[in-house]
Specification:
By secondary structure, the protein is α+β, with helices and mostly antiparallel strands. The chain contains 18 helices and 31 strands. It is flat.
């Protein structure tokens, strides 16, 4: 009879494969393929009348996996639950206790966690085996219950008031609101004119120098129009340019901290054009283990769901030795200790390579293209975080000309420090050196360079900016950013064009209902406070059901009021006078994932559909035809002429049918709450008041 083995249970086959290499023949490793128990999909699954008791069921399709695990348990000496080292992983281990009926064998059941899948870390975890941490489990139960209650209670409201199939989420609704609010800011934005003036000068030695106008009589100056600019240009051309002050010095630039989940997603988006979801998928592969030539399967990076920038002593010491050997003693510095943001959990380290000796170039042939790109980014960010500052020589010059002051500044890289490794990810700015000059020098004027500018609206959210904003607001946690973005995109509440998020018409409808009826619930401050309470549950300072007891009464009040008072949104199947080409019926307006479209009411016998173009009620400013409200392929609303393609008029804002009296471009409506009429040209600042009774052309 074969001797009994120790059974190790993990979530994924990839993780199991890596562990087998480290644990040897006395251990059997099995994977659960994720969660084994969860709340039922067909019902709320939270017994609100019975103090929010959750009703867990075995997930469909997990029966065979659990049966196999039960067979393995019978012959196992010890059972180690080795799921991920976070709330979610702790909850999976706790659910396994119940699904496998392990409660009565608790003296043989152990929980182990490791921040990286290396031989040292895994062996250490077995020596430091512990019991299930119920504070972690309860924090996950509270989050799951909150999200289930919000989603399952608000969704029926959206079905009733808008259309079937819609849904809402606690964190996703905040993200949607941010995107919609930003779109409103941009839509309402009226550009303002301003000017800048530079002087092209020459030193005694004939070297060129550009100086920027900065002050008048010692105070900062704003130039609002051409008339003001012309007045200043006249004054500058009539006076000498005299050097008043020359300052030379140095400045330093510190390296960035090693990655957290959020900063990794942001940087991968900017540097690699990876979505948050793709970043997490590739990072998970690197964490769980990749087969490396000459080594076998190894975990390449530490745990990828973290908001801490802490680095373990062992990792720091190895990195210091590597830096000395690879780059020389000049690149050694005092140990860098980075401060995690307020509210960060310090259970895990920052994201780092499991060994810096494993340089990206050495293992490139063993990695897929995406794995190599992300591993290289993580490796370089971590090594750079332990390198010295970059040092620049600086030179600044202050110049006077009558009542006005101008300034010029430059710098030259003196010592690259951390840029030796991380320069390619920095902003591409060339060193600007200022030619030699001295106090009292009179500089020759070559040219004056006035330039007209217009203020720009706030930037639309990219994935990187949205994640950064959610983190700064305290909304969500490392594990939630990627699924939050994926969810609002999959529901067609937002669309992404050229890496920028735009709300769809459907997203705007849903956001308005949520904002008007559940302002507190989708408020960023409220959601951040909820996150803090969940963290307190994890720290053992708060009872998890109390979070729900505090939350639900007010939420129920808002929900009941919305059900009674929220009017239906007009997305019903309105009949039109457009005849179906196939069967002759009057086609109706339906509301799909990209907005309204025309469909035959004879469905399913007749499946004819057509695009629906709503009349905007104005004439085309170019040809006088009707202007229709149309949709882009990705669901964004725009205004286009009925005579397209003969007439090429299109606009993201509703046109008035009139032309700008200043530049002749079409006038459009800007904003929703405080509407204005403004010129559609970004180079023209013309605007006028919006009048509700203004006659439409």
């Amino acid at each position: 009879m074969a001797s009994s083995k120790n059974l190790v249970i993990v979530e994924s086959p990839a993780k199991a494969k890596t562990l087998k290499k480290f644990l040897g023949s006395n251990y059997k490793i099995e994977a659960t393929m994720g969660h084994v128990r969860d709340l039922p999909k067909s019902e709320l699954g939270i017994d609100i009348e019975n103090d929010f008791e959750p009703k867990y069921i075995t997930i469909r399709g997990k029966g065979e996996i659990l049966a196999k695990l039960r067979r393995e348990i019978k012959s196992a000496n010890k059972i180690y639950l080795a799921t991920d080292p976070d709330r979610e992983g702790e909850a999976i281990s706790w659910h396994l206790l119940y699904a496998l009926k392990l409660n009565d064998k608790s003296e043989n059941v152990h929980r182990i966690t490791f921040n990286e899948i290396t031989k040292t870390a895994v062996k250490r975890s077995i020596k430091e085996a512990r019991d299930i941490d119920m504070d972690l489990v309860n924090a996950q139960q509270a989050r799951r219950a909150l999200d289930r209650i919000v989603g399952y209670k608000i969704s029926p409201l959206l079905w009733k008031k808008v259309k079937k199939g819609l849904s809402a989420g606690r964190v996703q609704s905040v993200a949607l609101k941010l995107i919609c609010d930003r779109a409103e800011e941009i839509d309402s934005f009226i550009p303002e004119e301003y000017w800048s003036i530079e002087a092209g000068l020459k030193t005694f030695a004939g070297k060129k120098l550009k100086a920027k106008l900065s002050k008048k009589n010692g105070k900062s100056i704003e130039i609002k129009n051409k008339e003001e600019a012309d007045e200043i240009l006249k004054a500058l051309s009539e006076n000498d340019f005299t050097v008043k002050e020359v300052k030379k010095g140095t400045r330093t630039k510190n390296p960035y901290p090693p990655f957290t989940t959020s900063t990794m997603q942001q940087e991968a988006s900017k540097a690699l054009n990876f979505s948050a979801q793709k970043t997490m998928s590739v990072a998970q592969q690197l964490y769980e283990g990749v087969s490396i030539k000459g080594e076998g399967t190894v975990g390449l990076v530490s745990y990828i769901r973290t908001d801490s920038v802490r680095v373990a002593d062992e990792a720091y010491n190895e990195t210091r030795e590597f830096i000395a050997g690879e780059y020389g003693e000049d690149y050694l510095c005092e140990r860098r200790e980075y401060k995690s943001r307020a509210g960060a959990q310090d259970a895990h380290e920052a994201i780092r390579p499991t060994s810096v000796i494993r340089k990206p170039s050495l293992i490139k042939d063993s990695l897929s293209n995406d794995q190599f790109k992300l591993y290289k980014l993580i490796w370089e960010r971590f090594v750079a975080s332990q390198l010295p500052q970059a040092v620049y020589d600086t030179n600044s010059v202050k110049i006077s000309c009558g009542d006005y002051s101008l300034s010029a500044g430059g710098n030259r890289l003196k010592f690259d420090g951390y840029l030796l490794v991380y320069k390619k990810y920095e902003e591409k700015k060339k060193d600007e050196e200022i030619p030699e000059c001295h106090e009292g020098d009179v500089l020759k004027l070559n040219e004056l360079l006035p330039e007209q500018h217009f203020t720009q609206p706030p930037a639309r959210y990219t994935e990187a900016l949205l994640i950064k904003t959610l983190e700064e607001l305290g909304v969500g946690r490392p594990s939630t950013y990627a699924p939050t973005i994926s969810t609002i995109t999959a529901r067609n509440y937002v669309t992404k064009e050229n890496r920028l998020f735009y709300p769809t018409e459907l997203g705007e409808v849903v956001n308005e209902i949520l904002k008007n009826n559940f302002g507190d619930i989708v408020n960023a401050d409220f959601t951040a406070r909820m996150e803090e309470e969940l963290d307190e549950v994890e720290d053992g300072k708060h009872e998890w059901k109390q979070v729900l007891r505090d939350f639900y009464p007010h939420f129920k009040e808002l929900l009941d009021d919305a059900m009674e008072n929220q009017s239906d949104v007009t997305v019903k199947e309105e009949e039109t006078d457009i005849i179906c080409d196939n069967c002759g019926r009057n086609m109706v307006i339906k509301f799909g994932k990209y907005g309204k479209f025309l469909a035959c009411p004879g469905f399913p016998e007749c499946r004819n559909t057509k695009p629906y173009y709503e009349d905007a009620g104005v004439k085309c400013p170019k040809c006088g035809g009707k202007v229709y409200i149309k949709k882009s392929k990705k669901g964004r609303k725009f205004y286009g002429c009925e005579n397209n393609p003969e007439c090429d008029f299109i606009s993201w804002n509703k046109p008035t049918g009139e032309l700008c009296p200043v530049c002749g471009s079409p006038l459009v409506e800007k904003g929703r709450k405080n509407k204005k009429i403004a010129c559609s040209s970004p180079e023209c600042g013309y605007s006028e008041e919006f009048k509700e009774d203004k006659e439409e052309s």
